[in-house]
């Protein structure tokens, strides 16, 4: 039996009057368009009005994105359509709310057949919205979408961020990747190579054992426990799990306390228990993740698994978080190996996990062709290079990354990590499943056996999704 999300399951939590009012900006009587095509003139020379929704607002949350949309994207797109002889006006429906509130507002609009023509959507929500019937595969909304030449520039692994059950629901935007960061100076002191790339979990442990010989150094930081939150799942558990050849959601089933889950928990037990290669107390502190950042920047942690955010924002020499003046000289990085060569998903030697979002078409749009043109233009090389000219980030497109990324480490993520990465399942139950995984790692960190922690996870998972939706 497959896990099904009832159409009303998302909307059930939405009927809060204040939130309903906030969600229905497109229903304002003074607005020229309510996002579902009313008030639009169809295409024989008449004006067409499209709406674009994003959780960004000038002067507030994601202000740079809002400024880009209003100051460059919309004028350029309207001018492009005018050259084609089409009179298009794009209205921007910006928000500056908590992500969950934004998600709730979108779900409410879509559940009633309304909402903007083009919407930004976190990849972690795609499956949930698809199962609820709020979004549809691109080819069902606009058949020509799948022939877009931009797909050739987006690796298949990255396309998975906006894919559910093998069907594309949108165009992915920015993304990221996870690696192992390591301190080259500590490696040299421990007799380890400066250019290091482990090919198995055992080689990671061998490096940790060598680092343990240095007084005052924590060999490895592998996020664990509930206080680390989603960082435990994304930077710790899931990259290791895909390194065993398993996914937390596969073949329409959740993975229970399986052999692969136990293999991951065994590694946590080795690091935080048997061999004392990590600091278990750090995993239990309320500010444990921030403290691990600081300790790495000060040279007291040898290896740390994190995303490119860590390089760009945390230990950047100009950062206010944990700046490293000598970052470029001292910090190395390596891909996360599978448990052993070839043991990862798809027979991979190396693995990673990524996050990010993208844009989807409202299946109720009155103008799918023009809405698609707007969405494709947003993810065109011209638009992306303009958007990220002063703040180079990893985009979904390899051609754009080739142009805008000059940082060696970020280039490594774009070139080496994205083609082999994986994504979390965008399902309604995932946040609860993630917490259950965090609890399992915390149990091991605090002394429970991996077998018992896996059994505890299995029991918790059954309470979340039902035993019939769990693979053996």
TrEMBL record:
| Region ranges (Disordered) | 26-47
Stored Gene3D superfamilies:
Periplasmic binding protein-like II
Query: Mind listing the UniProt keywords for this protein, alphabetically?
Result: Signal
Enumerate composition-biased segments (Gly residues).
36-46
Which InterPro entries does the UniProt entry name for this protein?
Bact_solute-bd_prot1, SBP
Q: Where are the transmembrane segments?
A: none
Domain of life of the source: Bacteria
Q: What Pfam families does the record tag this protein with? A: SBP_bac_1
Q: Which residues form the signal peptide?
A: 1-22
Protein name (record): Extracellular solute-binding protein
Q: Which organism is it from?
A: Phytoactinopolyspora halotolerans
